[in-house]
Amino acid sequence: MNHPLLTALFLLALSITSAHSEPGTDAAQGIVSLYNGKDLTGWTTTQPGNHDWSVVDGVIDCNPPGRGQG
User: Fold this and answer.
1) Is 9 left (phi over 0), alpha (psi -120 to 50) or beta?
2) Contact status, residue 27 vs residue 12, Cβ threshold 8 Å
3) Which residues are registered as beta bridge partners of 53?
4) Residues whose CB is less than 8 angstroms from the CB of residue 65 and which lie 6 or more positions away in sequence, other chains included
5) What is the pLDDT of residue 24?
6) What is the three-state SS of 25-40?
7) Which phi and psi (to 5°) does residue 4 adopt?
8) Which end of the chain is more exposed for a tag (fewer CB within 10 A), N or C?
9) In the prediction, which pLDDT does 67 show?
10) By three-state DSSP, how is residue 48 classified?
11) Is the pLDDT higher at 35 or at 29?
């Protein structure tokens, strides 16, 4: 059987997949990384004395003072 719609969908999916798999840097593809996975370089808070934020095992962590349930 001839299924032109299925063929067209397959070709569209193939072209989208190949477009995303082309080699290149993130910056060249327009992707901007917000977090480097190591530290909070370049990050700021609206409260300059706020030291609640840190990086633990590559994950951004917030440890606010107080005993509130959360």
Assistant:
1) alpha
2) no
3) 62
4) 52
5) 60
6) CCCCCCCCCCCCCCCC
7) -65, -30
8) N
9) 66
10) coil
11) 35
Q: Which residue has the tokens 């808070």?
A: 45
C-alpha span between 14 and 27 (Å, rounded): 24
Smallest Cα–Cα separation from 40: which of 24, 51, 29?
51
- Burial label for 69, CB within 10 Å (0-12, 13-18, 19+), is exposed
Q: How many residues does the chain have?
A: 70
DSSP 3-state of 24: coil
Sign of the CA dihedral with 47 first, then 51, 52, and 58 last: positive
- Confidence band for 48, pLDDT divided at 50, 70 and 90: confident
Domains of the chain: which residue ranges? 35-70
Q: What backbone phi and psi angles, to 5 degrees, belong to 7?
A: -65, -45
